[in-house]
């Protein structure tokens, strides 16, 4: 099954799909309307928010975003890996890790040194792919893990690219 990762800025036709996923998986019942989520998903050019969409055989099966803010009680932390979602029929195939790597690469290309995420249920997944838990906390009556990932510097990425060419 051929895979490709594109952004919604490259493929704005995918924004309604990602808006629906974001609404159903993360925003429904949290005080935001679907229209608000859809408007944010269709945001214009710029480094953030940036949503990567994984296509399998040309069909969208998952998404992950680079966002300036994602956790209201922590406005001091930025940017965030946010909205990691894989459609139920496509889970268990490594798609989440592919999407996270794509967002990390986008962030590294922007010179971002550190990213953040919070999760209630996927701490082990993120730990396996290099994220580390820095805090456990309660939010809206539920327990979460706050995690961080230090990204390679632009100069380190350039060194790795040169080494691959050897």
From TrEMBL:
<dbReference type="InterPro" id="IPR050832">
    <property type="entry name" value="Bact_Acetyltransf"/>
</dbReference>
<dbReference type="GO" id="GO:0016747">
    <property type="term" value="F:acyltransferase activity, transferring groups other than amino-acyl groups"/>
</dbReference>
<dbReference type="Pfam" id="PF00583">
    <property type="entry name" value="Acetyltransf_1"/>
</dbReference>
<dbReference type="InterPro" id="IPR000182">
    <property type="entry name" value="GNAT_dom"/>
</dbReference>
<dbReference type="InterPro" id="IPR016181">
    <property type="entry name" value="Acyl_CoA_acyltransferase"/>
</dbReference>
<keyword id="KW-0808">Transferase</keyword>
<protein>
    <recommendedName>
        <fullName>N-acetyltransferase domain-containing protein</fullName>
    </recommendedName>
</protein>
<feature type="domain" description="N-acetyltransferase">
    <location>
        <begin position="5"/>
        <end position="152"/>
    </location>
</feature>
<keyword id="KW-0012">Acyltransferase</keyword>
């Amino acid at each position: 099954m051929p895979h490709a990762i594109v952004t919604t800025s490259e493929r704005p036709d995918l924004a309604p799909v990602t808006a629906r996923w974001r609404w159903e998986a993360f925003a429904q019942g949290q005080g935001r309307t679907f229209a608000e989520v859809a408007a944010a998903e269709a945001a214009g050019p710029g480094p953030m928010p940036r949503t990567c969409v994984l296509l399998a055989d040309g069909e969208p099966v998952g998404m992950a975003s680079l966002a300036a803010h994602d956790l209201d009680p922590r406005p001091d932390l930025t940017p965030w890996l946010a909205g990691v979602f894989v459609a139920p029929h496509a889970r268990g195939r490594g798609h989440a890790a592919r999407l996270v790597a794509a967002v990390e690469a986008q962030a590294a290309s922007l010179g971002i040194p550190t990213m953040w995420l919070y999760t209630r249920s996927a701490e082990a997944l993120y730990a396996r792919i290099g994220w580390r838990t820095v805090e456990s906390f309660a939010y809206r009556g539920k327990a979460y893990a706050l995690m961080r990932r230090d990204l390679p510097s632009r100069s380190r990425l350039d060194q790795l690219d040169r080494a691959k060419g050897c």
